[in-house]
Design goal:
Length: 450
């Protein structure tokens, strides 16, 4: 069993002979040059795990590279664990069987992702697909690495850093004028450190939303809608200035948290509580500490009137209909009488009639002078209730950018589409079923507002 495991691990890591060591050394030499051709630091080739991720970036397969890198690290740790367990005799067979299963599983995953990554690299270099066979065998992988890396004939169609530089030139200039009333957002960027590099999630988003406006937030998967909302409400700070009615969301967060209501897609309520008790508990959490019990109850009664929950105030939450649960979830956040109201798919699970009623209620809230921002995947059935639309798009560098902010009719003319779903399709990537026009519209909008 030990010998069998050694063979399996040797197939992946080439560590059992002088020939294997030489093959790995040649692969690193070739990979060093390949990374440099793609605008990356060549020394990444020396670091196990990191080199897998970086070669995936060269292939335009960054997401696949994360999995490929992690499975490679897992294989190395497993190799170390097998070496340690060899000293135990009583449970050695069971442990070796488990290790063999894990090795097979990890090798299968790595094989699948290696096909994706090296196929992408072949496309980037514009060469014949038959090269894939040499790439898939660890003992021969050094051959294409050396040839592609050191032969000037082979050049990548684009460089990793070129994408970032190109999209940086599309940045919208200036910033939104700060208003004493309404919401002013001037977001330079929102970044995270992920897999050995700084990743930009959002960049250059500037807008002013007046009081009393109901705004639709559109964008495909990964465009940064939730990240943007978290940056606006102060939950995840960005390199930005966010002002609500003159109050700074970041510098005065404790004070401003009462001014923002956020309703997530998932409902977080105890089924065994009554509607009344649920709202009283919410009032204790969301209203300032100096608010008396009498004032809290008065506010709860007021909110139940607004959302039509008084007839069911003594009902258990678990006995409510889907529409009633949604209204209760919204009521919990509306208790604090926020100036900014954010809702993530409030119509999820509701039929057309119930969804329409809910959005009409949100329209009434906006008409009282509140700002209401809503994410919904079925916007066209209620689009007449909105004032403006924000469209976020994921550019070539996989960064969320502002492709449009303005009126509904303006968006239709700008994108040349009548339906909001068609607008989302236009900025989605082709591999996601879209038209792949995100860069075009980001650039067009940046020029309009410059």
């Amino acid at each position: 069993m030990n010998r069998f495991l050694d063979i399996l691990l040797t197939l992946e890591f080439e560590t059992s002979s002088l020939v294997s060591v030489i093959a790995m050394a040649l692969y690193i030499v070739g990979l060093w040059r390949l990374l440099e051709k793609s605008g990356l630091k060549g020394w990444w080739a020396l670091i196990p795990g990191a080199r897998d991720y970086q070669i995936a970036r060269c292939a335009g397969r960054e997401s696949e590279g994360r999995v490929y890198s992690l499975t490679g690290v897992a294989m190395l740790l497993l190799n170390l664990a097998v070496t340690l367990f060899e000293s135990f005799s009583e449970d050695a067979v069971t442990l070796m069987l488990i290790a063999a299963f894990l090795v097979f599983l990890l090798m299968f995953v790595r094989f699948v992702y290696a096909i994706r990554i090296f196929s992408g690299l072949i496309e980037v270099y514009g060469i014949r697909r038959r090269w894939i066979w040499l790439c898939m065998i660890s003992y021969t992988r050094w051959i294409p690495a050396l040839i592609w890396g050191w032969n000037r004939k082979y050049q990548p169609e684009w460089q990793v850093e070129d994408i970032k530089a190109e999209m940086a030139r599309l940045a919208s200039s200036g910033s939104a004028t700060v208003m004493d009333e309404g919401l002013s957002v001037n977001l330079t960027d929102r970044t995270v450190t992920e897999f050995f590099q700084k990743k930009v999630l959002l960049r250059d988003i500037h807008m002013n939303i007046p009081q009393g406006h109901m705004v639709l937030l559109l964008g495909g998967s990964g465009a940064g809608k939730t990240t943007f909302l978290n940056a606006v409400n102060g939950y995840e700070k960005a390199h930005a200035e966010v002002l609500l009615n003159g109050g700074n969301m970041y510098r005065q967060y404790k004070k401003m948290q009462y001014e923002v209501g956020f309703v997530p897609q998932s409902e977080m309520m105890r089924g065994k509580d009554t509607v009344l008790n649920t709202l009283l508990d919410a009032a204790k959490l969301r209203l300032p500490k100096d608010v008396s019990a009498k004032q809290r109850r008065e506010r709860v009664n007021e909110v139940m009137d607004i959302f039509g929950l008084k007839p069911v105030k003594n009902n258990l939450v678990e006995k409510l209909s889907g529409g009633q649960k949604k209204r209760l979830s919204i009521s919990m956040e509306f208790i604090s009488n926020p100036s900014l109201f954010i809702l993530d798919e409030p119509d999820s699970g509701l039929d057309g009639v119930m969804a329409r009623e809910l959005f009409e209620q949100l329209r009434k809230i906006a008409d009282t002078g509140k700002i209401v921002i809503v994410i919904t995947h079925t916007p066209d059935r209620v689009i007449d209730l909105f004032d403006d639309v924000i469209v976020l798009a994921k550019d070539s560098a996989r960064t969320g950018r502002l492709a449009w902010y303005g009126s509904i009719e303006g968006a239709r003319k700008f994108f040349g589409r009548d339906k909001m779903e068609q607008i989302v399709k236009s900025v989605n990537r082709k591999e996601e079923g879209g038209d792949g026009l995100a860069d075009e519209f980001v650039m067009k909008y940046a020029k309009e507002v410059a």
